[in-house]
Design brief:
The chain is mainly beta. Helix content is 8%, strand content 50%.
Length: 224
């Protein structure tokens, strides 16, 4: 194994992205149906809790996206840590299946260091950090909860990075309130679309017309 591969595995094994030593509180959880061109291609389950590894304040998002939703061939597991100001602290996406891959990103001294380890390739990159930086992924959509928390009525100008692929862009996230209607967040810039919210302001879905992507939160089953 190369030095980079060892570094990624060491980062994950010695400092896992969860708040195992902290008292955690459940903030939100749910299931998303992911549709492309009106065909369901995946299901995603996510859980958002308070706290980060080492007992630090903030929040931790854990998600598992299965492609397809039944008898999946590929699964993506993701962890997103944000600090007390709801800005990016650490990120991890691991892809299982025939082409396994792990990408880990951590913010240190205002620099986001991204390391990827896979059988066919390994890489390391750095990006400028900052409170306006958001980490997303093409296959895990609950990560957009971070944009929900940063969006404003005036329009929050955000820098977006997809650590697994290296894509970067800029997005303006603007809260839209309609009298007698449910609120939403409009997305303009390098990503055009809309984030759907429920009556309580929680993430309810995502519409990305250019990619023909529709992500909808599924109704929670009543307790038995």
């Amino acid at each position: 194994m190369t030095k980079l591969g060892c570094a990624v595995l060491l980062l994950v094994s010695s400092a896992p992205l969860h708040a195992a030593n902290a008292q955690v509180e459940s903030i939100d959880q749910g299931t998303l149906a992911i549709r492309v061109a009106e065909v369901e291609v995946a299901r995603e389950q996510f859980t958002l809790t308070s706290g980060r590894r080492g007992g630090l304040t903030g929040s931790s998002l854990r998600a598992t996206a299965s492609y397809p939703g039944v008898r999946p061939h590929t699964q993506y597991t993701a962890i997103l840590e944000r600090n007390a100001f709801q800005t990016l602290a650490a990120f991890q996406v691991e892809r299982g299946g025939d082409a396994p891959e792990r990408t880990v990103a951590e913010l240190t001294r205002d620099r986001l260091t991204v390391r990827t380890a896979a059988p066919a390739r390994e890489s390391a990159r750095e990006y400028p950090g900052g409170a306006d930086l958001v980490a997303l992924d093409d296959s895990v959509y609950s990560l957009w909860l971070a944009v929900v928390d940063l969006a404003t009525e005036e329009g929050a100008r955000l820098r977006v990075v997809y650590p697994r692929t290296g894509w970067r862009g800029r997005v303006v996230a603007t809260r839209v309130r309609i009298p007698e209607g449910t609120p939403s967040i409009s997305l303009t810039g390098d990503i055009e679309g809309r984030i759907l919210l429920d009556a309580d302001g929680r993430f309810s879905g995502l519409l990305l017309p250019a990619k023909k992507v529709e992500v909808l939160r599924q109704a929670e089953s009543p307790p038995s």
